[in-house]
Amino acid sequence: MLNRFLLLPLVVLMFGCGTPNEAKMDLIPLPQSFLPEAGSCALTGTWDMVVPDVWADRMDFWVAWLEADEDAAEGAAVHLQVILDGELAEEAYVLDVAPKEVEIKASTPAGVQHALTTLRWMAMTAEGGKLPCGRIEDAPRFEHRGLLLDCCRHFMEPDFIKRTIDLLALHKMNVLHWHLTEDQGWRVEIDAYPELTAKGAWRTEADGSVHGGFYTKDQIRDIVAYATERNVRVIPEIELPGHSRAALAAYPWLGCTGDALEVPHDWGVFKDIYCAGQDTTLAFLKTVLDEVMQLFPSEYIHIGGDEAPKVRWEQCPKCQRRITEEGLHDEHELQSWFIGQIGRYLEENGRKMIGWDEILEGGLPAGATVQSWRGMDGGRDAVAMGHDAIMSPTSHCYFDYPVESTDLEEVYGFESVPDGLEGAGRILGGECNMWSERAPQHLVESKVYPRLVAMAEVLWSPAAQRDWSDFKTRMDAHYSRLDAWGVTYGWETVPLGLDWERGTDAATLQVSLVPAMSGVDGTASFVPHGASEPTAVFGVGEVERIRGEGTLVVELTRKGVSMGNPLVFPLAGHVGAFEPVELDHAINAYYPGRGEQGLADGRLGSQDFRDGSWQAAQGQSMGVTISLDGTHHVDSLSMQAYRYQDAWIFLPDSVRFQWSVDGEHWEGDWAEQPFAGGRPTFEPNDLQDVQRVSVAVGAEAKWVRFEARNPGPCPDWHDAASSSSWLFLDELVVHTAP
Ligand code: ACM
Ligand code: ZN
After folding, report:
1. 489: in domain
2. Ligand 2 centroid distance, CA of 320 (Å)
3. Are 298 and 236 spatial neighbours (Cβ–Cβ below 8 Å)?
4. Is residue 491 part of a domain?
């Protein structure tokens, strides 16, 4: 036994005994159990830590980890004994606090670190003086608790990656899924193929500026070592066969056409992907993976597999020959074959493959773990086939989406084991995905936090203990720790309440400013369209009625400090809002747009199609009927649609507004290509905008209705040719005279 005495400064703490929350320890994730005992442990600001010989080389790091938040202080040391207990599970720990000493038991360094982290958190938020005596027994519910960081759409500095690793460890998360190759940038140095970083790591933006960067092998080794010391596993993702434009820009022979391509600066899904018919492409990927495996000790290598359009393969003689020679039926089976080759190569090298749920299409390669992102079905199917799965559905785990679409409470409600699933043990855990198309490094934390804190508890703590209001209390206290660590967190939820009250002017919308997190203050101003001054200014907790269209500008502060740029919500007070609706389409689970009422709730769409107010359907037409609260003289009707063809979002082919007094006889006809520009919108363009269509009515109506025809599959020229296109709509606005 090594006996090294170290003086650890800790602030003076003071709190009483009880359950974790009664004792105000405000721990997240909530430990499995806390057994209070009489008495308290008076902290003196210093510790002496004793660790078993086998962990002697960990001592300095553990001391630094524990004392990182504290200033040096004076006083007699409290004894901190670390004991190796081989009976405990992998990451489990027992933390015993007695009046004169603290004892930690664990079977692994990860377990010790989790115990020290618990102690560190307790020290940070206690109101001085004493740790409550008692025993915490703790272990994670899932073995895989991760964050995906997309360092391709926007490059992130090595120091930022390290800081992210620290914050993961501080929340007892244990996986950094490092997305390193993409259409818009190749970020990992590969000796055999220098052009990957010489050319593939750089793109010219629309404004002529250059964005890019890559990690040298030394930087990667340093980051992996840093993570390993903190018990965070780094899983590299090398995307194939799609999301590979940067590699094709560096080495055009990797693609089916051999055409010279640029590293793209726009977002979306691109049809040029690795050619599956060439042995040279496979040899290239194996060489890349050789070098990647040398850099990353991870048992798992992520190979992507998502969003790979098959148009090039359909037209490529080499790919078609491969299909024939291998006795495959179609391009989906070719993808499965291609990924199977890679999977086998990884297996020969002692590694396991993870792929996005598209790898199920055409047959799941042996031994593959599926990461389910298009809902939960991919993970469910993989488990049914005897494979492992990691859950990160867009509904709860996409932290690049605004809080309007996934707020803190929704994340806290995430359950990664589907109801009634047999073989639930094959669900390894979950991940939060931070894609960075719209988030350069300086915005990443505002999207990841506080949502990652909720995910940390969801993936660690027993499901039976989950309690939103209890979590909220602990979360409120935890902000002081996030502040101490300098985390630039964002909102918990949308600070906007929309409602409607029968008996008031039917054309008004009741708007309130709700605190988006505790301690928030601020004002909202409603500026009607065409006006320069607000007609209503109100504060948190107040309710205003607004009529007609305009923008609500919300400025909030927390502890007197501005919470960033004003939030802007396009709204419409009109007689259709909150009246009963009937939909013709099935709401898409990824873009529910505020649910059944979403097309008649006073909330218009913004320039961000994922702002939560856009309602979408894929491969279908859409329609909504509103039953007004009586007959109104309707001047006009309007609707907005989103256009972003790169993301498969098209304007409707044709639309029809209708109105009726009796619900049987309807006025109003179809209009072909009603949007500004008409047909040209179905030709290639990289526009991303909101388009409005309206119709003059000038009649009485009790029912109003809108239909939009889906334009059919993505056209031949499109990168996702033949895939189903999306329609996005926001609100059927019923315009009446004041
Ligand atoms: C993904 O979001 N395309 C995995
Ligand atoms: Zn090909």
Report:
1. no
2. 8
3. yes
4. no
Mean pLDDT of 299-328: 96
User: Span 233-247, mean pLDDT?
Assistant: 98
pTM of this prediction? 0.88
Which residue reads 């609707």 in tokens? 639
Please count the CA atoms within 13 angstroms of the CA of 501 that sit on its side-chain side. 11
Nearest CA owner, ligand 1 atom 2:
373
Q: Which residues line ligand 1 (CB under 6 A)?
A: 306-307, 356, 373
Please check whether residues 123 and 149 belong to one and the same domain. Answer: no
Residue given tokens 């170290």 in the structure block: 6
Distance 307 CA to ligand 1 centre (A): 7
| Number of neighbours of residue 706 by Cβ within 10 angstroms | 26
For residue 46, the model assigns a pLDDT of 73
Using the atom order of ligand 1, give the atom closest to the CA of residue 373: 4
CATH number of the CATH domain containing 74: 3.30.379.10
Nearest CA to ligand 1 atom 3: 306
The answer to whether residue 197 is domain-embedded is yes
275 CA to middle of ligand 2, Å? 4
pLDDT above 90 for 268: no
Per-residue pLDDT tens digits for 413-455: 999 999 999 999 999 999 999 999 989 999 999 999 999 999 9
- Report the length, in residues, of the chain: 738
CB count in 10 Å sphere of residue 464: 6
| Mean pLDDT, range 600-613, rounded to an integer | 92
Q: Is the same domain home to 333 and 435?
A: yes
Q: Range of 218's domain?
A: 144-484
Percent helix, strand, coil in the chain (nearest 5)? 25, 30, 45
Please say which residue of 111, 138, 165 terminates a domain.
138
Note the pLDDT of residue 274. Answer: 98
Judged against a pLDDT cut of 70, whether residue 18 lies above it is answered with no
Ligand 1: which atom is nearest the Cα of residue 398?
2
Count of the separate structural domains present in the chain: 4
Write out pLDDT tens, residues 493-504: 988 888 887 777
| Residue (of 318, 248, 254, 313) closest to 281 by Cα position | 254
Q: Verify that 507 and 479 share a domain, yes or no.
A: no
